[in-house]
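Sample pair:
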Amino acid sequence: MEETLKLILDKLNSMDSDIKDIKNNVRNLEKHVFIIENKQSEDSKALYDGYSQTLENTVEIKKDIKDIKETLNVHEVKLLKVK
C-alpha cells in the first residue's frame, strides 16, 4: 500500500512539475503574442501613413496638372490672337 501511495505521490509531483512548465510556456507565448500584436499595429500605422502621403501627393499633382492645363489654354488663346 505504501509503495502504491509513493508511486501516486511521485506521479502527482511529476504532473505538478509538468503543469508549472506548461504555465511558463503559456506565459512566454503570451509575451510573444503581445510583441507580435504591437509590431503588427506599428506596421499597419506605417502603411496607413504611407497611403495618406501618397493620396496627398496625388491630389497635389492633380492640382498642378489642372493649373498647367489652364495656363496652356491661356497661351493657346494668346497664340490664336497673334495669328
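The two ends are 120 Å apart (CA to CA).
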